[in-house]
Structure formats: C-alpha cells, structure tokens
Amino acid sequence: MAVSKELLKVILQRTQENKIDWSPLSSGGFVARIGGSSIAIDQMAGAKFYSLRITNEKNMVIESISTLEESDPEQYVAAIYELARRQALKIDETILSLKSALDNL
Known about the structure:
The chain is elongated, with a radius of gyration of 15 Å. Strand 2 (29-34) and strand 3 form a beta hairpin. Helix content is 38%, strand content 29%. A five-stranded antiparallel beta sheet has the order 1-2-3-4-5, covered by helices on one side. It starts with a helix and ends with a helix. The protein has three helices and five strands. It is an alpha+beta fold. The chain has one domain (5-103).
C-alpha cells in the first residue's frame, strides 16, 4: 500500500518546520524516528528515483512509496528527500561556516 498524499504533505511540512530530526542512514538515505515508528527515504545513486518507507516499532515496513509508482506525489517525495539530506548532513551550517572561514582569510 502506498503512503497517502496527505501524509506526504504532513511529513514535508514538519520537515520544513525542522520538527523532524533526520539522520544519515546510508550514503543515499536518511531516517527519522518518530515515537516507535520511523520514516526512511532513499535516492538511487545517479537517478531521480526516490523511495520512502514507514516502519513500525518492530522495524517492519508498513507503508511505502517510490517515485516510479505514482507521478503526483513524486514532487513531495523528492522535496522531503532534499530537505532530509540538507538537515541530516547539516549542509546549510557547513556552507555558512565555510563562508565565514573564507571571509576571514
């Protein structure tokens, strides 16, 4: 069963609000633990293929969606991935730090 568009919107909104704490899962994936459940999102290397999975407290996948299954939610899954990546890897903080260091040269 696919993740609903409404749930994807909520995940995206909460990620934009920095209310979801994403951390690296693999070289192309990120995970957020919420209560006893978790959300994992991955991007296939070199492709615009994303996969989002929701697991229960036993780490069993209970819902999932990939960008090849449906076209409408694709925009949400891709946006969630990009925000999760930026937050988990602390990209904005790293860029600011780098800029500051360059300004002090």
